[in-house]
Design goal:
The chain is mainly alpha-helical. The protein has 3 domains: about 50 residues; about 80 residues, DNA polymerase, domain 1; about 35 residues, no CATH class. Helices cover about 50% and strands about 10% of the residues. It has 8 helices and 3 strands, in the order βββαααααααα. A 3-stranded antiparallel sheet has the order 1-2-3, covered by helices on one side. Helix 3 packs across helix 5 and helix 6 packs antiparallel against helix 7. The longest helix has 20 residues. The radius of gyration is 27 Å and the shape is elongated. It starts with a strand and ends in a 5-residue tail after the last helix.
Length: about 210
């Protein structure tokens, strides 16, 4: 069973300490004893559940780790790589670049998403930026640098559904009559009543 202590320092703060699975003592200091107890319970629980991560492992800067993450993506297309780089430079690094991995929390990620929404960034772009951040942090979990991904289950804006306009039968006829050829008229009727998408229509062959 892990050994743990909470002692009050000369400055009045409380230091929580425990012996980790690595046989080393780990500590953190708090203003309140209740916070020290809460942290200690959480650390011991993750240790007992086999989810313990060395608190010192996640001290690497996010900017440094994200660069290594992008370099490790050897199976993606150059266009995809450029997209990741754009998201990092414009949206992710300005907020998290100087943060240590271990200090990034779910409230921080949530505030970041909210700020992008206030900038009226499109929901799809926000989701792309969040997906990139979440992928990097998930890799950090796999590498044993952090215990959990703080980007998980963060509330994201809903994707806007396009406004669809549907023609009445008489409007379909009017549109077809305005076409320059019989082939174009046929195309209008097939799209209107056949339920095909444009790509499916383009792939049709006479037989």
């Amino acid at each position: 069973m892990a050994r743990e202590t909470i002692d009050r320092r000369e400055n009045g703060r409380y230091r929580a300490r425990y012996e980790g699975p690595d046989r080393r003592w780990h500590s953190r200091t708090f203003d309140r004893k209740a916070d020290a107890k809460r942290w200690l319970i959480d650390q011991l629980a993750t240790s007992n559940q086999g989810r313990w991560v060395n608190p010192n492992a996640g001290q690497v800067d996010f900017a440094y780790y994200s660069a290594a993450w992008l370099s490790s993506k050897t199976r993606i297309k150059e266009k995809t790589r450029a997209g990741y780089r754009s998201l990092l430079e414009s949206r992710i690094l300005p907020t998290f670049g100087r943060s240590r991995l271990v200090t990034i929390s779910r409230p921080m990620v949530g505030s970041w998403v909210h700020e992008m929404m206030e900038e009226e960034l499109s929901p799809s772009r926000i989701r792309q930026a969040h997906q990139c951040l979440a992928a990097i942090l998930e890799q950090a979990v796999d590498d044993g640098l952090i215990g959990r991904n703080p980007a998980r289950r963060v509330e994201l804006p809903r994707l806007l559904q396009p406004d669809h306009r549907y023609l009445r039968a008489d409007q379909v006829t009017t549109l077809a009559d305005a076409m320059p050829s019989f082939e174009h008229q046929t195309m209008v009727y097939v799209l209107a009543y056949g339920g095909l998408r444009w790509g499916e229509l383009a792939a049709l062959r006479r037989g």
